[in-house]
Specification:
alpha/beta; Rossmann fold; L-fucose Isomerase, Chain A, domain 3; 2 domains; six-stranded antiparallel barrel; five-stranded parallel sheet; 20 strands; elongated
Length: 500
């Protein structure tokens, strides 16, 4: 894999614990014990982001102080650790002032109390669930959106003070809770990456694809991404700056990452790339990378159709290779001017699960699979082996010829992430989980993966299409619906699915 051009934005995570101030003088050691739980949670959360820890919040003044601390740090998400019983009034100022998404952590330290040896003070270290209904009621009445994670704390060993078994790291209820917490933290990373990101729009949308058209203002309003409008002459201006040495290095990179095909056994349009095609594709790839770096782009969507044979039309013939390399480098590229799928690809890439540009190719009613892919770009990081470069005598439905990528996504669980636009102008996620199989694909220079879903293709397609998706989507590896849904919740987007 090539070095990343754009790195993932780590989220800034606010954490605070809550308790009842009257307990500290009544029960020796309780506050110190609960603070240790707080530091344990901080340590786990720091794997996925930069943690701003407000510590124990047990009165209104402290809540306002922590709220100012979180606002100063510009936190993306807040985790409220319910350490013991606490009155909702003592901490509600934090989400009320910060106005950030809140996840309430209802994590009991022990799988069960040692009933024979548990004192009142010991019980108070385990009664975290007691006030969660109060928190939910108060947050609801205040109009504060919140999410809940319940389960076990997941310590590796039991503190000396505890008569109960608190070594619950391997307990299913701890493992599931921490999977959810990780997903919330990573979802916050995806949202932050969008909010601070820059989407390049090169050229225009494929004319006539009504599902592709989107309002740039709407995109920025609902994702935070700045849309940088680029012309083909912008890219062309980089071509004279490309050196022979840069082209040679790019060709060496391509030879390491791809198999250079022979002629296709089935399609006379798909041939071994000529030396001129490869050289031109690599030269354009260098120019594309220069443009992306100079404009500090996090993603790029593109399409160009001009009169046949003009210099920009010839330039776009070489796009697919360079845009596949950019996608592998953390700058996802979506063709046909599909900005919404470019956003979906960026979310997948930020979460480390790929995000390859796809549409439905055909259905295999023998294997009961749906073939999914496109003529590029492809996310090389999720390829089943080295992808193949083929020379294309014709780009179907477009003008010109050039080099294209032929590849399959890794066999195993996959999730499709589509972002569509509703009639009232809202962005909406549509997600489906399935299994990429090792079935046959065409050898025509396109990406293609056969996918089996829990429902038979006819039923699945009827239900999916009824949701009003775009005809493109991003394909990711793994079953990621839970994580994608959390991203949608943080963005306040509708979320729908057919196959989970």
């Amino acid at each position: 894999m090539m070095n990343k051009i754009k790195l993932i934005q780590k989220p800034c995570i606010g954490l605070y614990s809550i308790g009842h101030a009257h307990y500290w003088d009544q029960f020796s050691g309780l506050l110190e014990r609960l603070n240790e739980y707080n530091r344990f949670i901080e340590g786990r959360l720091s794997r996925w982001g930069d943690v701003v820890n407000g510590g124990m919040v047990d009165d209104e003044a402290r809540a306002q102080e922590v709220a100012r601390q979180f606002n100063a740090a510009n936190v993306d998400i807040i985790f409220c650790h319910v350490a013991t019983y606490a009155m909702s009034a003592t901490h509600i100022a934090i989400p009320q002032i910060c106005r950030r998404p809140v996840v309430v952590l209802n994590l009991q330290p022990a799988e069960r109390m040692n009933y024979a040896k548990t004192t009142t003070g010991e019980w108070l270290a385990h009664c975290c669930a007691c006030c969660v209904p109060e928190i939910a009621n108060a947050f609801t009445r205040f109009g504060i959106p919140f999410h809940l994670v319940s389960g076990l704390l997941g310590l590796a060993k039991t503190p000396a003070i505890s008569p109960a078994n608190e070594a619950t790291a391997d307990h299913p209820d701890a493992m599931q809770a921490w999977r959810e917490i990780e997903e919330w933290a990573r979802a916050a990373s995806a949202v932050r990456t969008l909010q601070y990101g820059r989407m390049g729009f090169l050229g225009h949308t494929y004319p006539g694809m009504l599902d592709m058209y989107s309002d740039f203002t709407m995109i920025q309003a609902q994702t935070g991404m700045h849309v940088e409008i680029l012309e083909m002459c912008d890219l062309m201006s980089y071509m004279p700056r490309v050196t022979s040495e840069e082209v040679q290095r790019k060709q060496e990179e391509v030879e390491q990452m791809f198999i250079i095909s022979e002629d296709s056994p089935s399609d006379p349009l798909a041939r071994r790339p000529t030396p001129d095609q490869l050289e031109r594709a690599c030269r354009v790839a260098v120019a594309e990378e220069k443009m992306v770096k100079e404009h500090d782009l996090d993603a790029l969507t593109y399409y160009y159709r001009g009169y046949e044979g003009n210099e920009y039309q010839v330039l776009q013939e070489a796009f697919i290779l360079g845009h596949s390399l950019l996608t592998a480098g953390g700058v996802p590229c979506s063709g046909e001017g599909d900005m919404k799928t470019g956003i979906a690809m960026k979310i997948c890439d930020t979460l480390g699960v790929g995000g390859s540009y796809s549409e439905i190719v055909a259905t295999d009613f023998v294997d009961q699979t749906i073939l999914m892919g496109h003529d590029g770009p492809f996310h090389i990081g999720i390829s089943d082996g080295k992808p193949i470069l083929r020379g294309m005598g014709l780009y179907h439905g477009k003008w010109g010829s050039g080099v294209s990528v032929e590849a399959k996504v890794k066999t195993g669980p996959i999730t499709t992430l589509g972002i569509t636009q509703t009639g009232d102008g809202r962005l909406k996620m549509i997600v489906n989980q399935g299994e990429a199989t090792n079935g046959e694909i065409l050898r025509i220079g396109n990406t293609m993966t056969p996918v089996k879903f829990a429902k038979l293709p006819s039923q699945f397609m009827n239900e999916w299409f009824a949701l009003g998706p775009t005809h493109h989507f991003a394909m990711s590896v793994g079953h990621n619906a839970g994580m994608f849904e959390k991203v949608a919740k943080l963005l306040k987007w509708p979320f729908e699915a057919v196959s989970l």
